[in-house]
Amino acid sequence: MTNRLERTLTERFKNKRENQVYVFENREKLGPRNYSPKSFLAAVNRAGLTEKISFHGLRRTYASRLVQANVSSGAVAQLLGHRNSLMVEKHYGHLAPNQASKAAVDILNKMQGEE
Questions:
Q1: Are 53 and 44 in contact (CB under 8 A)?
Q2: What is the pLDDT of residues 9-26, one digit of tens each?
Q3: Taking the CB of residue 38, how many other CB atoms lie within 10 A of it?
Q4: Where are the domains positioned within the chain?
Q5: If you placed Cys at 109, which of 55, 66, 94, 114 could pair as Cys (CB 3.0 to 4.6 Å)?
Q6: Gap between the terminal Cα atoms of the chain
Q7: Is 63 exposed, middle or buried (0-12, 13-18, 19+ CB in 10 A)?
Q8: Orientation of helix 55-68 relative to helix 73-80, angle to 10°
C-alpha cells in the first residue's frame, strides 16, 4: 500500500458514518485486518455491481495485473503476503511478459527504422 493510499484510507476511516462498513476492519491500531464477507458483499451491492464478484477474484486479478506489468514475482509475493515467490510463479508465471518476444519485436522495429 502506498503512503498516499494509507493516508487517504486512514482519513476516510476517521470520518466514516455510523452505518458505513469497510471490507477490512480492525478495531486495534496494529495487527492483521479481518476479512468480512458480509462487508464485502455490502460494498459490492452499494457500488451497484451486477456481476458475481468475489474478494478472491479481486486478489487474483490484482496479482495477474502486477505480473503482466512485469513486477517481479518476489515483489508480487510480498504484496500478496506470501513467504516466497513459489505460489506466484506457479499460478501467475505464464502471464509474465515473454522477454524473447519483446526482443524480437524490438529488433523488427529497428529493422523498419522505428524506435
A1: yes
A2: 778 777 766 665 555 555
A3: 9
A4: 3-46, 55-111
A5: 114
A6: 35
A7: buried
A8: 160
Helices and strands of the chain, counted as H and E runs: 6, 2
Joined together, the cell numbers standing for residue 45 give 451491492
Chain length of the chain:
115
pLDDT computed for residue 111 by the predictor? 86
Give dist(CA 84, CA 75) in Å, integer: 9
Could you tell me which of 105, 95, 91, 103 has the C-alpha nearest to residue 69? 95
For residue 11, give the amino acid letter: E
The model scores a pTM over 0.90 = no
CB 77, CB 87: distance < 8 Å: yes
Return the higher-pLDDT residue of 62 and 39.
62
- Reference 40, options 29, 18, 25, 19; nearest CA is 25
pLDDT tens digits along 54-81: 888 888 999 999 998 889 999 999 988 8
- Please report the pLDDT score of residue 102 as a whole number: 74
